[in-house]
Amino acid sequence: MRKFMAIFGLLLFGALARPAGATTRYVSQSGGTFSGGSARSGQNAISVSAFNSSRSSPGDVNYLCGTINTPLTPQGNGASGSVVTIQFDTGANITVSACGSNGCIYLSGLSYYLIDGGTPCGYVNGVDTACNGFIQATGNGTGHGSTSSIGIQMYSGGSASNIEIRNLGIYNMYVHTGMPGNDTVSTNQYYCIHFSGTNDVVHNLVEHDCSAGFVGEVTSANIQFYNNHIYNINWGLFASGSFNPETITNWSVHDNDIHDWANWDVSSTGNHHDGIFFAGNDGTASDDDGADIYNNYIHGHTSDCPNNCMTAFIYVRDSKNIRVYNNLLVANSGDFMYNGFLFFEVVGSNLTGILAANNTIIGGNTGFGNGSCLYAEGVTGATIENNLLSNCPVLLWGVNGSNYSTLNNNVYQNSPLSNSWQIGGSAGGGGSVYSTLAAWQSATGAESNSKATSGSLNLSATFQPQSGSVAIGAGANLTSLGITALDTAKGGTSRPASGAWDAGAYAFGSGTSSAPAPPTNLKAVAQ
Length: 527
What we know:
mainly beta, 35-stranded mixed sheet, two-stranded antiparallel sheet, disordered N terminus, disordered C terminus
């Protein structure tokens, strides 16, 4: 990504000097003297109604006290280097039956705000961590209410720019129970966060039981989304292009824990589940242009639908210049994917600038379904390198003329390897399948340094290569690509500046402090 992305948060939201005359407010539901908490104790609080009628200025700090039962509609803007802060004090929360279409916090059209739930939470150093401050709905769900409910709204009334949201829980916008019911409630009314804007940063959140954790609309540029824990969702993150070329640009999506989608199953085809979903909609592969997706842990139960409602763990459709690397994608044993765990798809024109490197993808079943570890449709000049692909019905599947600038140094494992690679065809059959690496190499004219085994990959319980693993030294050195985050393996081990790399997300000898906890409900599979 652009160099400034790594330091943007520090420049905008780091240690900021408050201007002279900045106001500190304490906000409780009804106002009055409040006790408890760490900041509010003994302070005179204003009511939510008074806060919604007041206007914040650069540097103002607004502490939320106790339980708030009314959505917040802040007024006024901050400034560069002097944001307006909404701070959840100890034990503070916003709890309502439903947040409504304007959200429990309405930031549309505003700029330079910090929303801070308090202590660090989300996905912290590879550990899922509970939050202090939170927003929750209590009245929506299958068999209950279905009022529109969006945790934080940053879209409906205009873009919100230079916003940071951190250390916050957003829960239960709609608690969907999935199969065998047929609850086909619209998914576009129950987002945890709905936004468009520029220079927005969302990190260290816990989001669950929303139709989507994070939905970005056009125009949205220079967006960071990291260290979040998201589950029980239809989409973890959705970047939605909408017939506007190059209007979803320069996103960084990394170090998130995203899991479990089956509660959003329906018997119709209305819901398709994805972990991370970038979708251009104009058929020219230009709506979404530029994203780095890396170091994410995407796993868990995909679907109980008879035909599988899960599309992909990472789904890139009609987008370009998308780089996907260092991700760990792991299905529960027995689960499969309708399309591919990592799925590149073109509808109207060719995808360009696609990179898939050093990902570890472990499927849940090789015996049925049309899913694949990595699926490429209509991709032009992609780099597919250093990936570790295992236990999928098809390990790599290319259709509709997909071609590659580099296809090499991948490690493949299935037991057995029969029909593990495919070119062409569709879910209904057809195409050419290959059961040996040699046949696949001959068909593609590539993969000269790739490896395949029907035996063990010799990975640890957290999917890191152990001594003797075929992944060790199997990768090409990709330092020349100039992707700083790729030069460090998932788990924090620096990859060598010269000499071979290991294939997959992890390097041999990676520290375990940042390794994810092993997924639950797994059964032994041959590796």
